[in-house]
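Supplementary Methods, section 5.1.

A reviewer requested that the exact input to the structure prediction be made available. We therefore reproduce it here, unchanged from the version used in the analyses.
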Amino acid sequence: MFLPLLDSNCVLLLLATWLFSQGRSEIISLESGNIDEILNQADVALVNFYADWCRFSQMLHPIFEEASNIIKEEYPEKNQVVFARVDCDQHSDIAQRYRISKYPTLKLFRNGMMMKREYRGQRSVTALADYVRQQKSDPIQEILNLEDIKTLDRSKRNIIGYFEQKDSDNYRTFERVASILHDDCVFLAGFGTVSKPERFSGDNIIYKPVGEHAPDMVYLGSLTNFDLSFAWTQDKCVPLVREITFENGEMPPRKPL
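The structure derived from this sequence is encoded cell-by-cell as follows.
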C-alpha cells in the first residue's frame, strides 16, 4: 500500500513550526562525542533517529518537541527524562551502532541501556507524553502482606525482593534491574516488618517461575552488583525461545542490496 504524497505547503508548514519551536525546545542533539555520557546519566531517554530528507521525520519533529516540553514541566529535574535526537545522515556510525534501518525510529533507553522494543505507538503529542509517563511509573509492586504471595499469577514470571528498607543500595540495584526488565517479569518487593520472616539471612531476592508447583530459585550473588543481578534476572525473565506475537514481534534490519 502506498501512502499519498503530502502537499508541499503542508510539509513547509510543519518545518516552519519545527524551526520556530526549537528556540524553546530542550531536545539534545546526540553525536559520537556526547551520546554515551548523556544516555548513561539519564533515568529515561527517548531518542528520535531521523533523516532530514524523510517527510515522516519532518512531520514528527514538532510533535516530538511539543511532547518534550510537556514532559519537562512534569519532570523538571535534570536527567529524570531526556528527549534527544540523532541525525542519521550526519552520524551514520551511531545509526549503524543501533541498527537503524528506517526513519523515523524512536528508541527508549534506561541508564544508557537500549530497550529491545522501540516505540511503535501513535505519533501524537498525547501518545508520546503518555508513553514516557508510563515508563516513569514505579515498575515494582509493594507487598503489604505476605499472604498476597499465595495469590500471585503463576502464569507469569515473578521476581520478589525482601528488603529491610527502601533506602538501601540493595533495593536501588533491584529497582534499576526492574526498570529495565519489567516488561518480561513481574517485580514485587516487601520491606521492614512485612518482609522480616523472609529475611532470616538478610535481604534476598527469589524467582518464582511459571507454574503452581515450580520450585523457587534464590539469587546468591551480591545484591549491590548491578551486572550480576541483571544477568541473573534476565536469564530468568527472558526465555531463550519465546512465542512471537504482535506485541513482541520485530523484523530484522534490511540487508543492503
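Confidence is low (pLDDT under 50) at residues 246-257. These observations are discussed further in the main text.
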